[in-house]
Design goal:
Elements: E1 4-7, E2 13-14, H1 20-27, E3 34-37, H2 43-52, E4 56-58, H3 61-64, H4 73-81, E5 87-90, E6 98-101, H5 104-109, H6 115-122, H7 127-148, H8 171-182, H9 185-188
Parallel strand pairs: 1-3, 3-4
Antiparallel strand pairs: 2-6, 5-6
The chain binds flavin mononucleotide.
């Protein structure tokens, strides 16, 4: 079966531009299963996505703050502490807008690329080369940040779903709580 992953503007990593509601309105007439990616951090968000008409969700940020995830404890704690207002978009990682937690390091270096780089990123002849350069450059620092903590450049990708994430839990507990929320009210209550 084919369908669409609908990455919305609340997603972590490479975020979309449209809201979940807008994506549903724009794509529902295609008659394909739609998966909501972005903004789902707690069971209520999951329920809301199902109520909008999505058949499921794709979560990234929620599972970083899980016991099984190999990410550094600093990264997990930053997700627990962050609110949606702490999530900013930067082109500095890959050349395309990427949602990360605004840390003191990010505030210092800024989230925007310089005007010449921006022009090259938008030019149809140079944009793919530029994105490759950015991706290679950021690969190392992202790896360091996710596994070695705050002494390294803290590029921590996360979405606005941080709002609903309050504890580091096992992946099993997360899935179980979300599954309960998907049950009809009479079963889950
Ligand atoms: C650290 C991180 C890395 C990601 N890497 C990829 C990726 O390589 N390819 C991709 O299609 N999406 C990637 N995503 C996006 C997720 O697949 C998903 O769409 C997104 O995380 C949903 O938003 P959420 O983080 O609020 O749950 C990444 C997200 C995060 C947080």
């Amino acid at each position: 079966m084919d369908g669409f992953i609908c990455v919305n503007e609340r997603a972590g990593g490479h975020a979309g531009e449209r809201t979940a509601q807008r994506l549903m309105a724009d794509l529902k007439d295609l008659g394909k299963p739609l998966i909501c990616a972005g903004g789902v951090g707690d069971p209520q968000n999951f329920r809301d996505a199902l109520d909008l008409g999505f058949v499921g969700v794709q979560m990234g940020t929620r599972f970083i703050a899980s016991q099984e995830c190999a990410a550094h404890e600093d990264y997990k704690q930053a997700i627990l502490k962050a609110t949606a207002d702490d999530i900013v978009l930067t082109r500095k990682l890959s050349g395309t807008p990427c949602a990360i937690i605004n840390t003191p390091t990010m505030e210092k270096i800024g989230t925007e690329v310089n005007p010449i780089e921006l022009k090259l990123l938008k030019n149809r002849h140079t944009k793919y080369l530029m994105r490759t350069v950015y991706a290679l450059r950021s690969l190392w620092s992202l790896k360091q940040a996710s596994t070695k903590g705050l002494s390294y450049k803290d590029f921590w990708q996360a979405g606005k779903s941080v709002d609903g994430i309050k504890a580091v839990e096992s992946a099993q507990d997360i899935v179980w709580r979300f599954a309960l929320a998907a049950q009809p009210a009479s079963v889950s209550e």
